Amino acid sequence: MPDGVELTSRFESLKVYDDPLEQGSDADFLKSCSGTLSEYIQSVLTSIPNCDESTVTLPSLPPERYRVIPKQEFTQGDVSECNFRYSPEDSPVKAKICEAKRLSLKDSLKPVWHFEVEPNSSVHYSPGDAFGFFIENDSHLVSWLLHRFNVTDNLYVADTKSAPPKSFEVSSALRKQFDLFSPPKKSLLRLLGEFCVDERERRILLLLSSDVGRDTYRSLFIRERVSLLDLLVAFPSCEPPLEKVLDGLPFLMPRYYSASSCYESKENTIDFVFSLAQYNIIAGKRWTRKGHATGTLDRICTQWDKRSLDDVQLTIFHRPSNHFRPPENLDVPYLMVCAGTGLAPFRGFIQQRRRKYTSILKTATGDYSMGQVYLFFGCRQVGEFQWYLDEIENDMSMLPNAELFVCYSRSTDDAMYVQDLLKKHAEQVNRLICSHPSSRIYVCGDGANMAKGVQESLSDILSEYHCSNKEDAKKFLKKLSDEKRYVQDIWFWG
Ligand SMILES: Cc1cc2nc3c(=O)[nH]c(=O)nc-3n(C[C@H](O)[C@H](O)[C@H](O)COP(=O)(O)OP(=O)(O)OC[C@H]3O[C@@H](n4cnc5c(N)ncnc54)[C@H](O)[C@@H]3O)c2cc1C
Ligand SMILES: NC(=O)c1ccc[n+]([C@@H]2O[C@H](COP(=O)([O-])OP(=O)(O)OC[C@H]3O[C@@H](n4cnc5c(N)ncnc54)[C@H](OP(=O)(O)O)[C@@H]3O)[C@@H](O)[C@H]2O)c1
Questions:
Q1: pLDDT of residue 143
Q2: Are residues 309 and 273 both part of a single domain?
Q3: Quick one: pLDDT at residue 1?
Q4: DSSP 128
Q5: Fewest C-beta in 10 Å: which of 198, 269, 443, 491?
Q6: Is any atom of ligand 1 closer than 6 Å to the C-beta of 135?
Q7: pLDDT of residue 38
Q8: 174 C-alpha to center of ligand 2: Å?
Q9: Strand partners of residue 390
Q10: Residue 135 CA to ligand 1 centre (angstroms)
Q11: Whether residue 416 sits in one domain with residue 294
């Protein structure tokens, strides 16, 4: 191994973990992390029933697809420039980050950032639309992987299933095409097991992939988010050929972010908001893993400095929303409900409404009507999202019949969730929904908890003020949903 390579690649691989520098020297850290990880995995494995390996059911091995070969051996098809895997209907554009501002407080539970991107060609979008972001894997991590697999950078990955066959430089393929952090599939675990030299490591991985390892699989990979890279650290005798591992990896998927601006307000840049996804892997130990996209975006935003980050290029594409967009006519009343980063699209809704209203004022003869709009928003504490809220409040104050309601879930005197805030203003909420045959309800953000709570509150409110009972209220909401008047843009993750 050339001098310094091991140290550098090991050090850089630690970027997956939080603040490696605080953990002592790079080599010490990796050593401790590999020991702790193996210990942890092995302690979890005590929950696998004691059984004879030959009696368990193993998954099939991943189907063969890739070959890793020297360039000169590639005879069919072309050596292509490796790109992300997008669908034919997506039209990706290059974009550069041109602004980043923190929306969370220093002591907030998780960082939240507003950032702006400048696409290299103008993209016409509507409020409520999202953009897909392709974020490549960290190049240092890729170097670490190549080193771990004993693969030199002048090799190529041939995709035998693409028509015509294509091949890519191995490092580009690892950066742009493969998801290295989603939970390893059972077929991949079996493959890793088959290639362990150490009998104990082999047995552990095979059991983890099998039917008897189902519960342990869930706790290690789904709950604790142990990844392929962790396994490669914890099972040093595992030496599969890289091409076989690629067969077992999913494609790297885009992450979606709702535009938080409106096209008419600024045509050349698009605003977004994200909160950092963090997973505490290996409960009770010291690692926090960051989400693939938000981890990278957080690093970029934290180091934000216009001069040094001028060349941070992203690949994004427009994903229009079918129904999550404000009504065309300004007289249609609507209710917006959100928590945390779910605020993003509604900033665009309000910006657009204000622009439309201003242009009506310039041209109309007084013959216009503005429907009621309410925005209900919940976050943890006063000061979070503050400049967004100030801006939105200012825009709403310029609009007739527009009102902002905010609550804080960790306030010391009046803590509540956004669905409780809806109930606090139940009569107004009911009046808005029932006042117009085309009124709308929009909900954005976390689908697992918040959106359910909001739906429950809406049925309580409607059953109290509009319908005869809760059953009728639920049917009423279902009807609104079928008519695309109750629209949710929600996301389940983890
Ligand atoms: C329409 C839409 C709009 C969104 N808008 C915002 C927003 O404005 N702000 C915000 O903070 N978040 C938003 N999200 C959530 C966001 O896309 C990411 O899921 C979130 O930021 C975590 O990504 P990560 O890569 O950091 O985390 P990771 O942990 O790396 O990824 C999250 C999990 O989701 C899976 N996953 C993510 N994207 C895909 C995909 N495209 N296909 C299949 N699986 C996938 C990953 O495999 C992983 O298991 C939105 C989601 C959708 C669907
Ligand atoms: N278009 C989309 O699909 C879209 C757009 C933007 C964001 N998102 C996604 O939405 C999710 C949430 O975003 P975030 O990270 O900004 O949220 P967050 O910071 O985790 O939470 C925001 C607020 O919601 C509260 N909350 C927790 N449980 C709740 C519940 N059951 N009901 C109501 N409120 C609840 C939190 O309170 P406590 O912590 O005090 O309990 C906090 O005050 C993320 O997954 C993000 O990726 C999706």
A1: 87
A2: yes
A3: 29
A4: T
A5: 198
A6: no
A7: 65
A8: 32
A9: none
A10: 12
A11: no
